[in-house]
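Thread: quick sanity check before group meeting

JM: Hey all, I'm pulling together slides for Thursday and realized we never actually wrote out the predicted structure for the chain we discussed last week. Dropping the sequence here so it's in one place. If anyone has concerns about the input, flag it before I start.
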Amino acid sequence: MDEAYDKPGEYMAGLGIAEDRPDRSRAITDANRVAIADIASRYVGMIKNAIEDYSKDVNVPNNKKMYESSLEGGAQAIGTKVIDKYANVVCRKIAQSATGGYVGYVAVHVLLDDAKKGLAEELEVRKVDYDKKKFFEKIDAELDKAAAKQKEEMDAMQ
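JM (edit): ok, ran it. Output follows.
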């Protein structure tokens, strides 16, 4: 379970559980997919929150603008591509349930440096004009906020 929680300043983590699968490989494959989706959904939310600061309704530093619609597929496509590229499986477990089906557990990590590097690369490919310093300050703030929320949840469970 420890591997399934983010480590602030180091990595984002995702946990995937796939129950009652007909075979071992399907249980692991599906659990891996769920773990990556867990990270991707939070990461995409962070990107969207950062992009909101660069919409046409906001005063943007140096008159630079970033429109989500101009990102050719938007934050979802960027976030999914980055997470798919940089996700590393750190833990895999498999068990057989009482009904005979297989249960897969997978923990996945994405290093924050890789997530930021991948995001910068994707924005560069799309030739997005934005204030890199301000944008990544906002991404850092979003990461800190998510880590604090997760720590609160962990503390409440203990």
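AS: nice. Residues 27 and 104 are 5 Å apart (CA to CA). Residues 24-52 form the longest helix (29 residues).
JM: adding both to the slides.
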